[in-house]
Structures are given as C-alpha cells and as structure tokens.
Amino acid sequence: MESSRSVKATITWEKDPARFLLNTWITDIIVNYGELKGKHFIGDSWTVPVRITSFVEGTWDTFADVGFLVDEAPWHLLVSGYTFRLWAGKEIATVKIL
C-alpha cells in the first residue's frame, strides 16, 4: 500500500495491540458499512490496511496510517474527525481520522 493513499489516524484498541509490529501493514482488518443481523453484516465491507506508527504509552491507543485497498472504497469518508470501527471476526478497535 502506498503512503499517498493513506491518512493519519488514532486507534483505540479493545485488546493490547503490542502483538502488532510498528510500521508494518496489517491487511486482514475490515470495516463494515451496514448493519448487524444476527451474526452477519448486511451492507458493504472494505479491507482497511492499518500501519501502526507509534504506541501511546500507558494506553492501548496507537497512532497509525489507514486507508482502503481499492479506489471504489469510500475514500471520501476518510476526513478529519470521522470515526469507524474495525472488524476482525468481531469489533476490535475504533479509528478516528486526524
């Protein structure tokens, strides 16, 4: 993923993110735009590559680069202040675009 196709963000994780390496793209996380019906999401899903750039000491928060893998994804939503939830089998974190 090219850095020109990503934006800066903060991420608040549900579990300790220390298992992720700094400055390495995590490419198996998605965002769902739709609704949860039972255990299934209805609506669009997009892969959201995440690269943690630093950890916030004493918290599970991180600074990161985030983006989408395809041009058809809703890039227009990645503006300052926008928040969304990341999914990897369950909701794992909240992203806030800087």
Describe the overall structure:
- The chain is mostly beta strands and 98 residues long.
- The protein has strands at 6-13, 25-26, 30-37, 40-47, 50-55, 61-67, 83-87, 91-97.
- The strands form two sheets. A six-stranded antiparallel sheet has the order 2-5-6-1-8-7, with no helix packed on it. The chain has a two-stranded antiparallel ribbon with strand order 3-4.
- Strand 3 (30-37) and strand 4 (40-47) form a beta hairpin.
Label this structure with key terms.
single chain; mainly beta; 6-stranded antiparallel beta sheet
Low-confidence parts: none
Task: Bin the helical content.
Answer: under 10%
Spatial gap, N to C terminus: 19 Å
Largest sheet: 6 strands, antiparallel
Please give the count of helices: 0
Question: What is the strand and helix layout of this fold?
Answer:
Layout: E1 6-13, E2 25-26, E3 30-37, E4 40-47, E5 50-55, E6 61-67, E7 83-87, E8 91-97
Antiparallel strand pairs: 1-6, 1-8, 2-5, 3-4, 5-6, 7-8
